[in-house]
């Protein structure tokens, strides 16, 4: 397995036997599972405390433990909303009535002690593979930050700027009004993506495209009203951005369908952004001008 | 109870943990403990009673010093001379836990039975506990000189346990 660029996955081993903890850790370390970080807990109570600080991707837990047992720990995790943490059991418990409870709470595997190394590895390998998939998240909406950087540079020419990734920015972070663009791919009936420049980004990209001095750009930023010349340049930027939107294999070129300055976002925009089928979010900072935000959202 | 299945599960447990092949066989009487033996106990409760402190059966494990060291060395992946007393006790308790799961088969009806937590047992208590209640099963490692005995005693009607 290629491990060079992988972030370590965090595995929390919960068992009241240090010997079993040692065995599980040894088996996983000896296998080529990519970089792993381990944390150990002697019971469910300790494990629940560690969840906040260690943020495990996978919990491998015993069932019968003092204080808080494995099932209770799993149920508590789900009750506090930690549904993303994968939990598997390595246990002597075999009663179907108990194991059914574990599965209904989302346990991804149950292995009985004593276990064969290959049985544990098979389950953990599958769990970690899905953790790595989840960590990758959806593809971005744009080809790359470099492509966006080049596009902004062609717009701003000699004006220095800084492009800062802003993953997780929300719709409310983008100052109104928005320059909202809709993109379509050739031959597709449904829209391909949306692009949003907040009013500050309109002023900055518009002012830069028109090669304006900082004072009129700052005035537009302060008033929240870009000039028509700025909006013309901002719209041109959005048109050019069609060329750097990520395309699905086999789909045709993407082009701008429509771009409008909107005073408030349409109802579904928030949920489209939160669905996160692919996002590229950035802050654009220009010394002397100010800072604006932009987002490209795959539909 | 399918004795053959239990014997084979016990052997698989020991060899899975230690890497040593072995065979278990039914034993006649609990042996007298030696000074360097290790003893463990695990209660089995019946959840229908609603009293988790009320054991229905107990599993008792007696293990020779050499077996304790071999087990802990294999489980911790350490040379025997680097093992602490706590390591030996931890590994022994976990063996008791694992063997107990196999011995549940020996109960007449295990459908409501729950495994408790294993605990180290003072050697002085072995003679008394190993002769108390109704013995359901007693198995031992058959390849001498290895020393390992595991037994299941039904104490369902022995309410003296409730007062402990």
Provide a descriptive summary of the structure in words.
The complex is a heterodimer of chains A (299) and B (164). Chain A is of the alpha/beta class. In chain A, helix 3 links the parallel strand 3 and strand 4. In chain A, helix 6 packs antiparallel against helix 9, helix 7 runs antiparallel to helix 8 and helix 7 packs across helix 9. Chain A is elongated and about 75 Å long. The two termini of chain A are 33 Å apart. The mean pLDDT of chain A is 90. In chain B, strands 1, 2, 3, 4, 5, 6 and 7 form a seven-stranded antiparallel sheet that branches. Chain B starts with a helix and ends in a 10-residue tail after the last strand. The mean pLDDT of chain B is 88. Chains A and B meet through helix 1 of A and helix 1, helix 2 and helix 3 of B.
Strand count, sense and barrel status of the largest sheet of chain A are: 6 strands, antiparallel
Estimated radius of gyration of chain A: 25 Å
Tally of separate helices of chain A: 10
User: How large is the share of residues in beta strands of chain B?
Assistant: 25-35%
Class by alpha and beta content of chain A: alpha/beta
Order of helices and strands of chain A: EHEHEHEHEHHEEEHHHEHEE
Which geometry of chain B do the CA atoms define?
globular
Which stretches of chain B of 5+ consecutive residues score pLDDT under 50? none
Report the portion of residues of chain A in β strands: 15-25%
End-to-end separation of chain A in angstroms reads 33 Å
Largest interface, C-beta within 8 A: A-B, 20 and 22 residues
As residue ranges, the low-confidence spans of chain A are: none
Counting helices, strands and paired strands, the structural category of chain B is alpha+beta
Question: What's the mean pLDDT score of chain B?
Answer: 88
What order do the helices and strands of chain B follow?
Answer: HEEEHHEEHEE
Q: Give the biggest beta sheet of chain B.
A: 7 strands, antiparallel
Please give the oligomerization state of what you see. heterodimer
């Amino acid at each position: 397995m290629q491990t060079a660029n992988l972030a370590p996955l965090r595995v929390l081993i919960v068992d009241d036997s240090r010997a079993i903890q040692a065995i599980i850790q040894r088996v996983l370390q000896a296998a080529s599972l990519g970089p792993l970080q381990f944390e150990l807990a002697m019971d469910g109570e300790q494990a629940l405390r560690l969840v906040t600080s260690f943020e495990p991707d996978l919990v491998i837990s015993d069932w019968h433990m003092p204080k808080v047992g494995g099932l209770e720990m799993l149920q508590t995790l789900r009750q506090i909303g930690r549904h993303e943490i994968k939990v598997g059991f390595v246990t002597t418990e075999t009663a179907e009535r108990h194991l059914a409870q574990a599965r209904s709470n989302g346990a991804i595997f149950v292995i009985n002690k004593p276990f064969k190394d290959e049985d544990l590895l098979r389950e953990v390998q599958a769990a970690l593979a899905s953790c790595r998939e989840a960590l990758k998240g959806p593809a971005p909406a744009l080809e790359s930050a470099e492509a966006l950087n080049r596009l902004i540079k062609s717009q701003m020419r000699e004006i220095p700027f800084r492009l800062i990734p802003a993953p997780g920015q929300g719709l409310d972070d983008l100052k109104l009004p928005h320059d909202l663009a809709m993109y379509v791919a050739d031959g597709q009936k449904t829209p391909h993506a949306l692009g949003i420049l907040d009013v500050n980004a309109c002023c900055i990209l518009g002012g830069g495209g028109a090669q304006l001095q900082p004072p009129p750009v700052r005035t537009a930023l302060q008033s929240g009203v870009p000039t028509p010349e700025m909006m013309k340049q901002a719209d041109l930027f959005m048109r050019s951005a069609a060329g750097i939107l990520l395309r699905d294999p086999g789909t045709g070129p993407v082009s701008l369908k429509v771009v409008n300055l909107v005073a408030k976002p349409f109802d579904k925009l928030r949920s489209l952004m939160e669905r996160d089928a692919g996002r590229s979010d950035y802050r654009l900072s220009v010394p002397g001008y100010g800072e604006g935000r932009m987002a490209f959202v795959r539909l | 109870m399918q004795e053959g299945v239990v014997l084979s599960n016990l052997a698989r447990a020991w060899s899975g943990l230690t890497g040593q092949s072995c065979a278990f066989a039914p034993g006649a009487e609990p042996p007298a403990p030696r000074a360097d033996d290790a003893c463990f106990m695990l209660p089995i409760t019946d959840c229908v009673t609603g009293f988790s402190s009320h054991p229905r059966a107990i599993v008792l494990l007696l293990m020779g010093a050499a077996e304790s060291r071999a087990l802990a060395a294999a489980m911790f992946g350490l040379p025997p001379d680097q093992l602490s007393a706590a390591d030996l006790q931890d590994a022994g308790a976990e063996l008791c836990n694992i063997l107990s799961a196999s011995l549940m088969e020996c109960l007449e009806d295990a459908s409501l039975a729950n495994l408790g937590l294993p605990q180290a047992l003072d050697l002085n208590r072995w003679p008394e506990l190993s002769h108390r209640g109704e013995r359901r099963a007693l198995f031992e490692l058959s390849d001498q000189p290895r020393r390992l005995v595991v037994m299941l005693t039904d104490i369902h009607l022995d309410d003296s346990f409730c007062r402990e």
